[in-house]
Structure formats: C-alpha cells, structure tokens
Write a structure and sequence with these properties.
alpha/beta; Spore Coat Polysaccharide Biosynthesis Protein SpsA, Chain A; UDP N-Acetylglucosamine Acyltransferase, domain 1; 9-stranded mixed sheet; glycogen metabolism; ATP-binding
Length: 411
C-alpha cells in the first residue's frame, strides 16, 4: 500500500497556497503536484493507495475524486482519501506525518498490506518504487529511506543520512551545519526524500509506541526513523538506482525537485519549455496520470504584422485561445485567453486566466483566474512590481486575483 502525506500547506509558496494545499498546486500545464507521487505508485504496480489530507483540502479532494476514481475493489484495488477526521480524539487533527498514518491504522489493517510505502505528496520526480521495495526485502531492513545524492554543503536544509559501506544508516541528522559525507565520496551527502518503506506490522507497532511518548513530535523524520536508526535497522536507498529516465535521454540527471518556493516552482515549470527538458512528461512508458478535462484544442488566430497569434518554445494547453498575442518560453494551463498585442515572456499562467490587450508580462506566475487589465506591464519595473505584487529576490512576480482587484480599486 502506498500512503501519500498530502496535508501540508507549503507556506513558502505564499499566496499560491492561500486556497489550496501544496500537493494540489498546478504543475506542468495539465497536472497537480500530487499526481507525480500517485503516478509513480500506479506505474510501480501498487494498486492500494491512501492519501492523507488536512490543510484546505477541497481543491485536492475534488481533483482526486475527478482524476483518481478508476480503482476497482473487485480487482483488489483501493483508493482512500483520508481527511483528518478526529478518529483518535474529537479535538485532535493530524499532529505530524507519523500521526497522519497512526490515526488511520484501522483502515490500513482492514486492507492488510504486507508492506507500506510512505510518500510525500509535494515533490516532482519519476521513480520506480518496486526497486526500492525489493531492496528493502533483500536487506532485511526495518525501514528503508529514499535518499538523494547531493553536494555535501547543499544538504544543510535536509535530513542527512550517515551510512556505512553497505548503506546501513548509522546516524540521521536533521538539517546539519556540517553534513556527513558518503563513504569514499567526501563532497557528497545523502539527503532524505521523505520516502520510507516498512513492513506493515513493524510500522504499526512503531506508530503505537510513538503515540505513547508525550515528548514525540509525531514525525517520521524527527522521531520514528531516528529511533530505528539507533536500533540498527535502517538502510538508505539511493534515488539514482530507481529513478525513471527517458529512453531518449538516458544520461539525464536524476530529476527530483521540491517546488516549495515561488522561484523553484517557476523554474521547474519554465524548464519544461527546454528543447530537451530534464523532466520528460512525454514519456509514454511512465505516464503522469491526472484528471483530463474534456476541452477543445488550443487555437492561434490573426496573422498581420504586430497582431499575430504565435508561440515559441512554449507549452500551450487545451482550450487556450491566443488571439493576436505572442508568448515565448511560457507555459499556459487550460482555458487561458490571450488578447491582441499582448506579450508573455517566461510566464507560468494557471487555468482560466485572461490577458488583456497590450499587456506585457515577463518572469511571472499568474494564479488561477487572474484577469490582467489592458496595458498592464509586469516584470519591467522592479520597484513597481514589488509594490503591486509578490516579487521574489530573483525577480519572479506572483500575481493573484486579490492583487489585481486591489490594483483596480487604486486606479
């Protein structure tokens, strides 16, 4: 059984998560962030899935109901959406990642899976969990922790594994100032991906023991895993052993992204406009499943100088109409309308946005449903952008409907 932890807000995404949880944030033109973990599970042969939700879950639950309702109990498949529902206590929400599993132990036991794969629902990557499961069984581990190989001094923001030659974890350090290096590789560290494999019985026993500890923070990374490490039963599984690479580009990096900041989110989306992007969303051997709306094709109209519907190095989703506007290195989600003489450059435009005539937008993210007034310019005046919108130190502007409403009132 795959158990996806999808209750977090993702506060570093600022206004993007004011109305939705981070796993429900749109990504890549058609999908949501959570679709990557769920698709990895399906493509790995896992047909029992649970998703724990909590913060502002309506958008996420609606997406799961629309796009992930194809499981058939008659084929021993199941898909459980598990909101925090005070199953343990009437006044207790999920207190941490471990508690989000603990409160649903009865449901897990009802399905009776042999193994549990615990997944974070807010990362972008493609991975075959079956390889990690096999590694867990072969090693006889109590827990197997998915790990990224990262430059050692870039691992200060992660939980870092100290391992021996057999990749048995000898120490687990949370956000260390001086991360421990891998054996024989002094400049590389192993950072936790928030992916864990357990035998179900062992996991349930560990969760029940943790629930009795009043000093516990009810977290896998802070409590459950470190305790298992001390008892000598934890092993690391390197992501590059089970990452899915495109057959067209087998030498590409082992792609994994935490799109947890505005800059990282914008960059990961814009990366998809590369001629050969580091993440291949066109690979039909490992598809990313999602809710596919029934919409008409994208449309480009007008063909006169200065008023030509045209896109270069961009992704344009269905039901978009580019009416005499231009876009470059941009990504448009479903249902965008771009009017004449407007320009988009390195823009990530979420569903149902409207771009007015003569508007110029550069290095920006437009949240769902934003209507850009005629002639508005974003991305050219840093001081004005910072006054009107959410502008990062790297110059990326996040634009939301309340921001545009406020701007209209001021004018």
């Amino acid at each position: 059984m795959a158990y996806v932890l999808a209750g977090g807000r993702g506060s570093r995404l600022k206004e993007l998560t004011d109305t939705r949880a981070k796993p429900a944030v749109y990504f890549g033109g058609k999908t949501r962030i959570i679709d990557f973990a769920l698709s990895n599970a399906i493509n790995s042969g896992i047909r029992r899935i649970g998703v724990a939700t909590q913060y502002k879950a309506h958008s996420l639950i609606r997406h799961l109901q629309n796009g992930w309702n194809f499981f058939r109990p008659g084929r021993n498949e199941s898909f459980d959406i598990l909101p925090a529902s005070q199953r343990v206590s009437e006044d207790q929400w999920y207190a941490g990642t471990a508690d989000a599993v603990y409160q649903n132990i009865e449901i897990i036991e009802d399905h009776a899976p042999k193994h549990m794969v615990i997944l974070a629902g807010d990362h972008i990557y493609k991975m075959d969990y079956e390889i990690m499961l096999q590694s867990h069984v072969d090693s006889g581990a109590d827990v197997t922790v998915g790990c990224l190989e990262v430059p050692r001094m870039e691992a200060t923001g992660f939980g870092v594994m100290h391992v021996d030659e057999s990749f048995k974890i000898t120490d687990f350090v949370e956000k260390p100032k001086d991360p421990p290096a891998m054996p024989g590789r002094p400049d590389t560290a192993l950072a936790s991906m928030g992916i864990y494999v357990f035998e179900t019985k062992f996991l349930i026993d560990a969760l029940r023991e943790d629930a009795k500890d009043p000093s516990s923070s009810r977290d896998f990374g802070k409590d459950i895993v470190p305790k298992i490490v001390k008892n000598g039963g934890a092993y690391a599984h390197r992501f590059n052993r089970s990452v899915i690479r495109s057959d067209n580009e087998p030498t590409h990096e082992a792609y994994w992204r935490d799109v947890g900041t505005i800059d990282a989110y914008w960059q990961a989306n814009i990366d998809l406009t590369d001629v050969v992007p580091p993440l291949d969303i066109y690979d039909r051997n490992w598809p990313i499943w999602t809710y596919a709306e029934i919409v008409p094709p994208a449309k480009f109209v007008h063909d006169v100088d200065g008023r030509r519907g045209v896109a270069t190095s961009s992704l344009v989703s269905g039901d978009c109409i580019i009416s005499g506007g231009s876009l470059n290195r941009s990504l448009l989600f479903t249902g965008v309308r771009q009017r004449s003489y407007s320009q988009l450059d390195h823009a990530v435009v979420l569903p149902k946005c409207r771009i007015g005539r003569h508007a110029r937008i550069k290095n920006a993210i437009l949240d769902r449903g934003v209507e850009i007034p005629d002639g508005l310019v974003i991305g050219e005046d840093p001081l004005l952008d910072a006054k009107r919108f959410r502008r990062t130190d790297q110059g990326i502007c996040l634009v939301t409907r309340p921001m545009i409403d406020k701007l209209r009132l001021e004018q």
